[in-house]
């Protein structure tokens, strides 16, 4: 602190140290770093008192210098954050954010390269585009009247309602869980952290059918918790509760896995500078942390919603696939096709395909907005 006062003394003058200095009177960059300022310890306060006694001033310049140094550190953190965000978005970290910025590859010129590109396009056409187009053809080749008649089926409408309800439960729960888990995992070190990260990836590696079977064995009539739940009058298997548990399980990792890479590369000095300026934990999260992770959070939410609406295996096992009661859109497609009601099956498939197209559209908009913000 004495060094800081010594550095500012030539520009302020000894007679001006008795009044609070103006920001315009201070040099642009103090000669000391923020890390050299005294902290809340007793030794730091003693050093501050000694320096102030030697210069004959009050304690106000010390607090003002600390605030100025915190503002300078916040400015440097903001510049580092902009460069870091540009790198992340350009490299496509956390859910391929930034792919809308384009690449810097060389043009295809040689015959071998043209052949490889042609093979890739042909493969995508046969595996994705042709089946996707066939779904719409099968749904509309008998006319729009048949299509809209299938949409008015009560069982079809119940399947849509149940699908939206499951997504409405699973998405908010896993977004909140992923946000809290990602912040605590990246900001703390604790025993079992590696094991916890591995457990978060478990829904990716376990088959959804196995997930449904596990939940059935746990909450079924003869399961571990079945008798207790039966006495309490709670139904899990062949009910909405079990379907919600299965959906939440399979969609659990998306948000947290999108946020962890961003939080790990985030400069912690931004949050430290905000706390130095007097911000509480909620203000730090709302004004510093959330703006840095909002694109990854939104992207993870989109993926969670798409996975929840398209889940089949786990929900099929634990729901029992009861028509008009525990049947989602994906289960309705299978049931209608097996009963040779192809028009209703393809009508439901068109609706699911439309939801997929909407997801891709929102995803592109998110990437474009992230890329546009990086260019500012």
Automatic annotation (TrEMBL):
Residues 1-20, 34-82 are annotated as: Disordered. Its main location: plastid. SUPFAM superfamilies: MetI-like (SSF161098). PROSITE patterns: ABC_TM1. The chain crosses the membrane at residues 115-140, 160-182, 194-220, 232-256, 344-362. Pfam families: BPD_transp_1. It is a multi-pass membrane protein. This is ABC transporter type 1, transmembrane domain MetI-like protein. It comes from Dunaliella salina (Green alga).
């Amino acid at each position: 602190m004495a060094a800081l006062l010594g550095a500012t003394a030539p520009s302020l003058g000894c007679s001006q140290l008795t009044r609070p200095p103006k920001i315009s009177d201070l040099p642009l960059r103090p000669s000391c770093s923020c890390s050299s300022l005294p902290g809340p310890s007793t030794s730091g306060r003693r050093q501050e008192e000694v320096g102030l006694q030697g210069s004959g001033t009050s304690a106000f310049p010390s607090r003002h210098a600390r605030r100025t140094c915190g503002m300078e550190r916040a400015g440097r953190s903001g510049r580092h954050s902009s460069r870091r965000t540009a790198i992340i978005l350009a490299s496509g970290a956390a859910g391929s954010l930034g792919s809308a910025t384009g690449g810097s590859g060389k043009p295809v010129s040689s015959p071998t390269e043209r052949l490889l590109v042609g093979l890739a396009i042909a493969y995508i056409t046969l595996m994705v585009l042709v089946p996707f187009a066939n779904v719409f053809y099968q749904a509309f080749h008998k006319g729009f009247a048949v299509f809209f008649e299938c949409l008015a089926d009560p069982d079809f409408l119940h399947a849509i309602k149940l699908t939206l309800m499951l997504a409405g439960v699973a998405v908010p729960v896993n977004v909140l869980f992923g946000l809290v888990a990602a912040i605590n995992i990246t900001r703390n070190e604790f025993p079992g952290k590696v094991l916890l990260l591995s457990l978060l990836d478990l829904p990716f590696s376990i088959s959804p059918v196995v997930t449904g079977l596990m939940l059935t064995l746990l909450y079924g009539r003869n399961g571990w918790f079945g008798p207790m739940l039966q006495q309490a009058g709670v139904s899990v298997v062949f009910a909405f509760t079990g379907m919600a548990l299965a959906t939440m399980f399979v969609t659990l990792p998306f948000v947290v896995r999108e946020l962890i890479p961003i939080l790990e590369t985030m400069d912690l000095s931004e949050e430290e500078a905000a706390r130095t300026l007097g911000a509480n934990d909620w203000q730090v999260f709302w004004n510093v942390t959330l703006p840095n992770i909002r694109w990854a959070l939104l992207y993870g939410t989109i993926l969670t919603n798409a996975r929840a609406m398209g889940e089949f295996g786990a929900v099929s096992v634990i729901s029992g696939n009861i028509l008009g009661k525990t049947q989602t859109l994906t289960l309705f497609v299978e049931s209608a096709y097996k009963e040779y009601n192809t028009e209703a099956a393809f009508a439901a498939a068109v609706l699911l395909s439309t939801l997929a197209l909407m997801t891709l559209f929102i995803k592109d908009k998110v990437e474009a907005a992230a890329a546009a913000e990086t260019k500012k």
